[in-house]
Amino acid sequence: MASILALIAAFLFALAATLQQKGALNLPTISLSDPKSLARLAGQTMWLLGTVALLVGYVVQAAALDRGRLAIIQPLLVTTVIFALPLGYFLTHQHVGKREIIGALVIIFGLGMFAYFGDPAGGNENAPNNEWAIAIGVLVALSVILLGFCRRNEDNLTVRAAGYGTVSGIMFGLSASLTKPTLDGLHESVGTMLSHWYCYALALSGILGFVLQQISLGTGRLAPSVATVSVANPIVGISIGVLLLDERFAQPDWHIVVAVVGLGVALVGAVVISLAHEAAKEDTIGGGAPEGAPAAA
Asked: Could you give the dihedral angle defined by the CA atoms of residues 103, 107, 110 and 114, in that order, rounded to the nearest 10 degrees?
């Protein structure tokens, strides 16, 4: 049931990204340096529908995390890239070619290997505060570095989409990880949940991930945006699940190796889709900005 819920969440996230991108394409550049550009999104019907889909996806993801392990639920969200292909084709006229289809099949194969041979077991719902502090500090530092890189490459839409998408994925991965202790407190009472810092950190990281994803989608480059979010999210989730929550791959050593290889194959498939999509777009447009995409800041 947890895995099914994770796949439903992945579909909702893909639908949300596609609808939000469709809404963002009708606006000028979306940038952190222009807060009004973010506010204008609220006037776009498609963007609002995408936001509703995103919120429902969060709820479904939380239900999956409540029933399963972080290290297995988060990797399944890589399928967001697969769902985004047909949705992008029909809703925003994104190109879907042979290489995208091959990439999708590679993702399915890799995730199948990971789920079958990995099967993480054990683990805790929470970790000591000092360990959380170290993990959050590392992720924030990495995010700041990536955002600085994006600022230096504002004119490259693909780099902006991938950079902001990666940071968004990091924030979403952190938010998902904090869902475990937050739900643990909620099972006791709402008051217990609100008495701990986890729920507030979850909300903050989720909001930051949401805002950064809008900037990424606003470039008009759906494939690199969705791919980087879908890759960074599970990497953060698996890392925290294993290092902080003590989730272990309770299998023979060779099963662990095959599982890790399978996850790597799935992530490569996501990157293949991103690169193939952008290559096809450049061939079609002749190296210019994608039609309908906002200009760079």
From this structure: 170
First to last CA, the chain: 44
Per-residue tens of pLDDT for the chain, all 297 residues:
888 999 999 999 989 988 887 876 666 666 666 667 777 777 788 889 999 999 999 999 999 988 888 877 888 887 887 888 888 778 877 767 787 788 888 888 888 888 777 766 667 778 899 999 999 999 999 999 999 988 888 778 878 888 898 999 999 999 999 998 999 888 889 999 999 999 999 999 999 998 898 888 777 777 777 778 878 888 898 888 888 888 776 667 788 888 888 888 887 887 777 666 555 555 554 444 444 444 333
Q: Three-state DSSP class for 129?
A: helix
Residues 87/18, Cβ–Cβ less than 8 Å = yes
The pTM score is 0.77
Of the candidates 292, 282, 297, 204, the one whose C-alpha atom is nearest the C-alpha of residue 21 is 292
